[in-house]
Amino acid sequence: MRIAKSMLAVSTPFGVLLGFYEAFRIHWYLGTLMTAILSVLLAFTWLTVRRIHSERHRDLTAKQKST
What we know:
This protein is 96% helix and 0% strand. The chain has two helices and no strands.
């Protein structure tokens, strides 16, 4: 399991880049569509992480004020 996680972390970005290359090679609009979909996924991921950080910060400050 230790080796599998690191292999997955390295091979996934290469697979995405290869997918972009092939999409643009087939048709430019397919590559553009793939870029748009990945941009939306990254935006939602960023919003989720930002929300988790803000809630964690809010909980820590509330805990410190109560003690």
